[in-house]
Write a sequence for this structure.
């Protein structure tokens, strides 16, 4: 299974309403996306949000990422976020890893995405350890 992990920190409360709308639209899209197997969302502290998704292939994930609601949301992230990072890997297991394992992978295998207003922790991924409770699953439609 191909796994995609993202971490976004929204830099101001004023961006939250539009971020929320784009998030709901992107969740609706991913549930119907060809090749999507399973996913999870984690609202963390300080306007930080994690997504963890499992796919049939990297190509299936990229097709989702570059189309529809998700593509529209991505066009805003450079302005909305002061921290953004992504990690990808392939694993034999069909279950998603724990959030603690996802955090470890982000720190060791992840890369920072481009943002217009980076925080001091953006480039080196030295963010606060995530709160790993309160998340929820995303299942295919």
């Amino acid at each position: 299974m191909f796994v995609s992990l993202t971490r976004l920190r929204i830099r101001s409360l004023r961006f939250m309403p539009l971020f929320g709308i784009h998030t709901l639209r992107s969740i609706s899209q991913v549930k119907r996306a060809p090749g999507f197997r399973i996913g999870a969302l984690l609202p963390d502290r300080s306007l930080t949000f994690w997504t963890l998704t499992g796919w049939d292939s990297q190509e299936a994930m990229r097709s989702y990422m570059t189309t529809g609601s998700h593509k529209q949301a991505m066009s805003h992230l450079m302005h909305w976020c002061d921290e953004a990072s992504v990690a990808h890997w392939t694993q034999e297991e069909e279950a998603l890893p724990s959030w603690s394992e996802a955090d470890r992978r982000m720190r060791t295998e992840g890369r920072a995405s481009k943002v217009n207003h980076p925080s001091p922790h953006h480039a080196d991924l030295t963010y606060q350890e995530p709160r790993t409770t309160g998340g929820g699953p995303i299942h295919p439609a």
